[in-house]
Amino acid sequence: MKKLNVVNVKGEKVSDITLNEKVWGIEPNDAVIYDAVRLARNAERQGTADTKTRSEVSGGGAKPWRQKGTGRARQGSTRAPHWYHGGVVFGPHPDRNYTTKQNRKERRLALKSTLSYKVIESELIIVDDIKLTSNKAKEFKDLMTDLKLDKNILIVVNELDENLILASRNFRNVIVLAADEINVLDIISADKMVVTKDAVKAIEEVLNYE
Length: 210
What we know:
Helix content: 25-40%
Strand order of the largest sheet: 2-1-3-6-4-5
Order of helices and strands: EEHHHEHEHEHEH
Number of domains: 2
Strand content: 5-15%
Largest sheet: 6 strands, mixed
Shape: elongated
CATH topology of the largest domain: Ribosomal Protein L4, Chain: A
Distance between the termini: 17 Å
CATH superfamily of the largest domain: Ribosomal protein L4/L1
Number of strands: 6
CATH architecture of the largest domain: 3-Layer(aba) Sandwich
Radius of gyration: 27 Å
CATH class of the largest domain: Alpha Beta
């Protein structure tokens, strides 16, 4: 596995790091990534969409006209699906379950595949540590400027720091996660992934086996 630069919060190189090839250098599997993203997005669905059937809409108690003799087609209710204000056929109901399943081996493979994509596409930045002296947004903005970060940013640290959480929370394009919270959807949604050196070790300890 090739070496990557380790920089400080000013964007200056301080050392090198050799990433574990079993975690950051595998051949990405697009199929399991797709399944993982689908699983995550389905899990976010509330499933509260609902439509009324012909038995739930108001009105329609009387037969519109007599069965025979009018020259028109027979009708039993003004709330049949083809009538204005009629019930909906095969519409969504809140008892629908959108959840999907993926086994543990596939989830791990999907996670390692997305991490490998970050290395392949040069979207991974490794910093020695991220420590803010205050919870002010200005200090965090200066950090982003020094690291040349824009668009969607994912920051991964070994342990969450209160100053970092508070300073970054007003930036809609920034997500801060602990190393044990990373997931496929957040990784692929980020244009740049910033990981501390300790977080890299924590991730490799968990994923460093087939």
